[in-house]
């Protein structure tokens, strides 16, 4: 796009209080031809009401099977700068903590090797470097690597794990989720970089049931902090909240899903029926000074979360109500290995683990990976009597 | 000299290198937090240390200039430490209280939106759209910009009944993970794929294409060395197109946007839940998708007016009943709202308990 | 079985306070050889832990395709009296009301024509005449008919409709369910007697949401009384209940599913938020003198109820939230005709209507029978975006 | 003279002929009711008329002698009017109050159980079992007798937390409609059908047999002109045997009984709901099935002890959670309890909210 194309619709999106992605593209376009053509292509899409990208081909860097999304426009003549416009997924640090130096190291590389546009961050959690040519991929990777960065996942591999801010800044964290995320990301570098499974597999780790990283909805394996003893109440702080004007009954205890916690307005005290608390966090969230998570901490493990394609969206399902979460996380890793092995053996191409479990049955999954069935795994037992009896069940008859 | 090849499998940098000193010292020992004002969190450690986090809205699609600009700010007020959130906002980590107000002043001056905490609307999790993907039924960044402009006051304020999580995905792959959002904006196709019989066998594995179809609408077409689509069974999910470029599904006239509501992710109070269909279709109307913006605002406003304090959108709807949701928002209920996929049956009402 | 077989296990079941079916068989056996052999066959089954009946052949009476269940033992040599042992389903009167004369007329016929054993009643509602020979079927029917009795359904036909006691003895009845049951049973005699559908179709009618005839669980079409205005409260009677010691908060209002009704203990009054009442009956049930159903009465219509085979048990689904129920019930009959036509056209062999709707989709069913979609039909709208668009939806584009 | 053939399609007798005068007069004009004592209902009309109904438990499988005997009683005290209930009890309709006590006295003397009203256990809805059916996995009448003997006090008393509805079906066809009962006793097979290849094609339509299988375990076997069963996919429902006598499934050693709990039918308070698996298998142990009797009593007793007044079994379980149901009843939870059929997914727990 040699002469400057008019982009009235793009320009319109520079107005208004929310920061504008168009302004960002224009900033990049000032220095980079691809970014300029991206702007033109977007205007064209806004006119046509249709995207102008073709299916990506297979592009990448040496030694890796994933981490790059190939992309080509279907209007290369009109927008030659985006003839090739691949994105690179860079694995973010646990909890998305950065120093300015670290971020600048990325900017410097991307200024040289790509469009200068990024997503901070991608929806899975990676830092997305948005748009470059095939020939730039390897040098870009080499430079990233030399600065201590590595690629995230794409394709049928382990996707880049991600986790909430956790103990770095949150009083609710039930274990060191940042460390766990870093640890498993490093342990499974091969699984992240070399697609070899039926389909993608995502892990997200939340420090507590608030699930600030949406793990239960967005990961095949969800690790969510929890505790096994009673929450801890500081009645002095209860009084302080009450005196500060918090309506404890209306805003706190009335919302307790099991009525495990009740408020004695006269004494200004909370009463807890510990065995009924399902650790929903609500009373803790509302009164963090007065109510704290218990001391016997670990995590619940859930499986199967994913979006709608093919068999419907699934939220993850409890498979381990409680697991201690301490380095080197061996129990978790052993479980992961068994899960992947079972999936690999039985899964069809492009079948997420949740869909496989649905197809084969939870019972078969549990037997396959050696997990004991417990009622915490279900809201309710089956309503149909369609039970698959196993040979072991008839031992007594022989 | 051969160019040095990058070392593989080094993994991401250790986050510990990037933690500000106050975080290292109080790691795992935070006592409690307060929301000082919209966008400003105060976390207090057992030590008494105070960390202020200032949350700033980001367009997510940012240039390196933007990154450098926020780095400059972080250098000035945060000793060079900052982080991003799971919803793509920036958080400036201020360990020195004296820097807080000057930081806020600079952010204000430069037009960075501060907010997204507590009972507010945070950033819209979203996807690529026409910026970079090959399957979108709508754009992502444009709608997000338009909706955030319109609901800006709810990002910078905290006057909502509860948190409001909006997400957008530009096609049914749902990279924006819209399936559990208070309000989900979803790009949808509405016409069956158009098969390029000539190229299909060359570009795609036929068995995989067939297996990709959730409703088994795709059959082999041995005569053409291609596939056939039973259009009656096709519900335009686009999964065949994801698998195979010869099943083109983009449609400038009939593609558009659906709105789903009432999902949530947290385990707080109620179990996590899916978003459910509110509006089956709104047209693609760039650059500002006024129908979508208006539809989202309408739902938000009815929720604000009707919900009890503390009720997320879905919790509110479950209390008043979907009958009332449709009545109060004025959204028409149609046959399209009734599930007809695998798990439809559990959504059918098996009781005479309902509201008129 | 000429010599008397020992039946120790049967005898054991004559002990205990609950009336014994064995005693009943023995009473019949005293007069009837088949009944005596039934007793022996039962003892044999108790020894073998297995039934001794073969699949039934097709037997019946002239002009009818159903109403008789053929049955033959697989031990005819040992128990010749039950070589043939068919049952006859006699259509009960609405609400199972009888005079002693009417019952005796049955006894007299059955003494002559069958084993003398019956089920009062069968699980669908018929009077079951249990066990006779093929040659007795026609004479038995002829005699029943001459006394004013007719057969009920069996096979792929309309099964004998049944209904609760309703207005005959219940203050909760929202319409004349006894009359409706009688009316449609007579209107659809052909459908009951001549199987011609993909599978069975059951109708049950309950006078109110208490559903004393289990229609929502046990019928393909459930008709359940309801009302459209507010329930009626008599505050004087509220006070009487309170003074008589009923704990109104704990036993009544706390159970209201929507908190539509609350109790003011001071004033001894009930307060109703009418628009939130979902007519669950609870407050009415607990305080029938004080709370009464509304005045604008009719019924809700639900479809699809059935037991587990094949695709799982279904409870019926709301398809018409409110329909007036007045003779000649034309609106209902028109709907039934449309439903049956659609089922007949699309249903596979042995596919219940609920399973067909599941397979085809509720939307297609509603369009097929011309019912308007309303939110009352669902607990929640769909969570997936898999919408089948219809040609009409694109009119505007043309 | 040719024998007169019965007239067809005359339909059932008009119920109006069978209504006692007091019912005719107060038809649709009943005011309220009271339960005078267990088994005795009093209905009062707007007119002030009082109708007493006395409910008597029946074995359901009755001889004509039994019918004649109750007719005699009805003649004596009820002017010849009586009815049966939807759960197969008899109701004597007494319009003259003076007849009430003498009737009760005679019933007592003759050993008829009076009860089944209010918060009691009513009669067990059940099926044919070994008495008359070809597919049963257990007997019906025998178990019912044993359980009713054991829980007799709850039929004649009204001391339960709420109504208790028990049902029995002798195979998965569920003619006893056990699928929505407080406690369901269900005959279950546990071994795959044994195919009689020689006779199959003669006796059965192969496509129908194949279609009968819920899990698609049956495939054509053209070589044998028969069918094959993939035993790994068979869950022993017996539907193929219902369709086809050459798929024999009865198994004296492995057939038995499953117990399901927590279903209900009424719309009172909570929506109607399915019974759910509590005990996957108990053996057939005639004549009194002690394991089944004991299992039912255990559940009833834990419910009585733990439920709040007014809570049906399922309502109680939903409040305390299934975790606690299994804990409190001591019933082991196994992989068999976890659904793996079509609608399994909505039963999986998608939250960290649970009890330990
Ligand atoms: C970049 C990103 C969207 C974004 O703007 O942030 C993205 C972009 C794409 N996703 Fe995604 N997905 C992205 C996060 C997700 C998520 C959210 C998440 O991970 O939390 C989901 C939903 C959760 C899930 O996994 O179920 C998601 C569900 C999909 C699916 C559907 C998978 C399914 O089983 O349902 C596909 C289709 C596929 O894999 O073929 C897909 C495919 C794609 C492809 C590769 C298109 C394709 O069909 O080949 C998109 C490339 C776009 C492009 O050209 O740049 N993407 N994708 C996200 C990854 C960034 C990162 O690495 O951080
Ligand atoms: C920074 C962040 C974690 C991170 O690693 O990035 C975070 C941080 C906090 N979350 Fe969160 N949450 C963050 C994403 C989430 C998400 C994920 C999402 O939105 O996609 C959820 C699940 C949302 C959902 O249910 O759909 C989430 C559900 C919660 C909840 C439960 C909310 C509820 O009542 O349903 C709390 C508790 C509360 O706020 O009372 C919470 C509480 C908190 C606290 C108060 C925790 C603490 O003590 O520090 C933090 C400040 C909250 C605030 O903004 O008012 N956080 N939080 C994420 C900020 C995202 C953003 O920029 O807006
Ligand atoms: C007699 C009766 C049981 C009883 O002891 O009361 C009965 C007996 C039989 N039922 Fe039934 N069903 C009886 C009520 C039911 C009910 C309950 C109801 O109607 O409320 C159901 C469950 C509700 C439903 O329809 O879903 C029921 C669901 C079945 C099924 C499964 C149908 C399904 O779609 O799931 C079958 C199998 C079939 O039709 O092939 C079946 C089949 C049978 C057969 C005909 C056996 C067969 O496979 O051919 C049984 C004959 C037994 C015999 O030899 O006497 N019976 N059957 C009931 C009819 C008496 C009457 O007319 O009053
Ligand atoms: C006679 C009968 C109707 C008939 O036409 O035969 C009947 C009669 C009455 N029912 Fe019923 N119900 C009868 C079967 C049912 C059934 C069906 C069943 O059990 O298979 C149900 C649904 C059961 C279920 O939910 O599983 C049923 C659920 C009710 C309810 C709601 C119970 C609940 O709280 O869930 C009430 C209200 C109440 O009792 O408070 C009720 C109330 C009544 C009242 C009080 C109605 C009235 O005002 O006359 C009658 C006396 C109840 C009593 O026994 O205490 N009736 N009732 C049936 C007696 C069966 C028996 O012999 O035991
Ligand atoms: S998930 Fe829990 S631990 Fe993690 S940031 Fe959110 S509230 Fe804190
Ligand atoms: S954490 Fe949740 S369940 Fe537990 S007491 Fe608090 S509000 Fe109740
Ligand atoms: S949601 Fe669909 S169109 Fe949007 S980025 Fe993901 S795959 Fe592409
Ligand atoms: S768009 Fe979806 S439903 Fe239609 S043919 Fe393709 S995969 Fe099947
Ligand atoms: S269903 Fe309603 S009207 Fe019929 S008997 Fe029961 S309570 Fe009365
Ligand atoms: S009928 Fe039910 S919903 Fe209505 S007020 Fe009474 S208890 Fe509440
Ligand atoms: S439940 Fe099964 S075995 Fe029992 S009567 Fe019905 S079809 Fe026969
Ligand atoms: S018993 Fe049921 S599951 Fe097994 S083969 Fe027969 S129909 Fe299929």
Summarize the structure.
The complex is a heterotetramer, with 2 copies of chain A (398 residues) and 2 copies of chain B (356 residues). Chain A has 398 residues and is of the alpha+beta class.
Short key terms for the protein model shown above:
heterotetramer; A: 398 residues; alpha+beta; 5-stranded mixed sheet; 4-stranded antiparallel sheet; 14 helices; 16% strand; globular; B: 356 residues; Alpha-Beta Plaits; Sulfite Reductase Hemoprotein, domain 1; 3 domains; 5-stranded antiparallel sheet; 4-stranded mixed sheet; 11 helices; 14 strands; 19% strand; binds siroheme; binds iron/sulfur cluster
User: Low-confidence runs of chain B (pLDDT<50, min 5 residues)?
Assistant: none
User: Which two chains have the most extensive interface, and how many residues on each?
Assistant: A-B, 129 and 118 residues
Number of helices of chain B: 11
Give me the count of strands of chain A: 16
Amino-to-carboxy terminus distance of chain B: 80 Å
- The topology string of helices and strands of chain B comes to HEEEEHEEHHHEEEHHEEHEEEHHH
Uncertain runs of chain A are none
CATH topology of the largest domain in chain B: Sulfite Reductase Hemoprotein, domain 1
Helical percentage of chain B: 25-40%
Overall mean pLDDT of chain B: 97
Strand ordering within the main sheet of chain B: 1-2-3-6-5
Order of helices and strands of chain A: HHHEEEEEHEEHEHHEHEEHHEEHEEEHHH
* Shape verdict of chain A: globular
How many helical stretches of chain A? 14
Question: How would you classify the helix and strand content of chain B by structural class?
Answer: alpha+beta
Question: Count the strands of chain B?
Answer: 14
The average pLDDT score of chain A comes to 97
Q: Rg of chain A, please?
A: 25 Å
Count of the domains of chain B: 3
Supply the CATH superfamily name of the largest domain in chain B.
Sulfite Reductase Hemoprotein, domain 1
């Amino acid at each position: 796009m040699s002469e400057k194309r008019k982009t009235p619709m793009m320009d319109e999106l520079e107005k208004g209080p929310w920061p504008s992605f168009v302004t960002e593209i224009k900033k990049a376009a000032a220095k980079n031809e691809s970014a300029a053509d991206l702007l033109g292509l977007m205007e064209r899409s806004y006119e046509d009401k249709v995207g102008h990208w073709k299916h990506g081909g297979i592009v990448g860097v040496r030694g890796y099977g994933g981490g790059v999304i190939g992309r080509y426009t279907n209007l290369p003549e009109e927008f030659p700068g985006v003839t090739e416009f691949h994105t690179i997924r860079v694995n973010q640090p646990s909890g998305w903590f950065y120093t300015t130096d670290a971020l600048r190291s990325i900017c410097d590389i991307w200024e040289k090797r790509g469009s200068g546009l990024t997503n901070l961050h991608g929806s899975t959690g990676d830092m997305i470097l948005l748009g470059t040519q095939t020939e730039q991929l390897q040098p870009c990777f080499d430079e990233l690597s030399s600065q201590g960065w590595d690629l995230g996942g794409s394709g049928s591999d382990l996707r880049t794990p991600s986790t909430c801010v956790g103990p770095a800044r949150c009083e609710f964290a039930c274990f060191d989720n940042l460390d766990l995320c870093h640890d498993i990301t490093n342990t499974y570098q091969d699984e992240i970089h070399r697609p070899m499974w039926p389909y993608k597999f995502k892990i997200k780790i939340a420090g507590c049931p608030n699930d600030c990283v949406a793990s239960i909805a967005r990961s095949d394996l969800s690790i969510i902090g929890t505790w096994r003893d009673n929450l801890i109440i500081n009645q002095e702080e209860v009084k302080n909240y009450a005196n500060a004007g918090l309506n404890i009954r209306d805003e706190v205890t009335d919302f307790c899903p099991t009525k495990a916690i009740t408020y004695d307005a006269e004494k200004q005290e909370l009463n807890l029926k510990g065995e009924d608390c399902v650790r929903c966090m609500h009373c803790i969230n509302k009164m963090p000074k007065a109510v704290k998570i218990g001391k016997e901490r670990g995590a619940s493990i859930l499986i199967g979360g994913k979006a709608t394609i093919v068999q419907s969206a699934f939220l993850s399902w409890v498979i381990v109500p409680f697991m201690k979460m301490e380095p080197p996380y061996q129990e978790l890793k052993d479980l992961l290995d068994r899960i992947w092995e079972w999936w690999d053996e039985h899964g069809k191409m492009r079948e997420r683990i949740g869909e496989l479990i649905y197809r084969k049955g939870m019972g078969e999954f549990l037997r396959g990976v050696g997990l004991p069935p417990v009622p915490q795994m279900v809201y309710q037992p089956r309503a149909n009597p369609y039970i698959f009896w196993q040979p072991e069940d008839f031992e007594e008859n022989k | 000299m051969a160019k040095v090849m990058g070392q593989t499998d080094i993994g991401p940098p250790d986050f510990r290198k990037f933690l500000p000193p106050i975080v290292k010292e109080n790691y795992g020992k935070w006592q409690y937090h307060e929301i000082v004002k919209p966008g400003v969190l105060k976390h207090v450690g057992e030590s008494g240390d105070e960390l202020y986090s200032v949350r700033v809205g980001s367009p997510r699609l940012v240039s390196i200039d933007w990154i450098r600009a926020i780095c400059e700010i972080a250098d000035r007020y945060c000793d060079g430490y900052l982080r991003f959130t799971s919803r793509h906002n920036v958080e400036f980590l201020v360990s020195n209280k004296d820097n807080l107000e000057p930081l806020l002043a600079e952010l204000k001056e430069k037009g960075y939106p501060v907010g997204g905490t507590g009972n507010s609307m945070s950033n819209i999790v979203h996807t690529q759209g026409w910026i970079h993907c090959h399957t979108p039924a709508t754009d992502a960044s444009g709608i997000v910009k338009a909706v955030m402009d319109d609901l800006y006051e709810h990002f910078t304020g905290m006057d909502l009944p509860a948190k409001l999580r909006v997400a957008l995905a530009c096609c049914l792959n749902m990279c924006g993970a819209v399936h559990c959002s208070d309000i989900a904006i979803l790009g949808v196709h509405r016409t069956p794929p158009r098969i390029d019989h000539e190229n299909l066998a060359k570009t795609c594995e036929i068995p995989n294409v067939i297996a990709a179809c959730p409703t088994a609408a795709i059959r082999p077409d041995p005569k053409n060395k291609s596939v056939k689509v039973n259009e009656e069974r096709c519900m335009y999910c686009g999964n065949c197109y994801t698998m195979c470029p010869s099943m083109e599904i983009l449609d400038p006239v009939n593609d558009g946007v659906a709105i789903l509501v009432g999902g949530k992710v947290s385990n707080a109070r109620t179990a996590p839940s899916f978003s459910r269909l509110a509006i089956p279709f709104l047209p693609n109307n760039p650059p500002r998708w006024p129908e979508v913006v208006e539809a989202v605002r309408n739902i938000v406003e009815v929720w604000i007016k009707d919900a009890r304090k503390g009720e997320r959108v879905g919790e509110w709807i479950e209390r008043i009943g979907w009958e009332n949701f449709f009545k109060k928002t004025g959204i028409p209920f149609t046959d399209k709202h009734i599930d007809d996929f695998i798990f439809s049956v559990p959504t059918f009402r098996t009781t005479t308990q309902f509201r008129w």
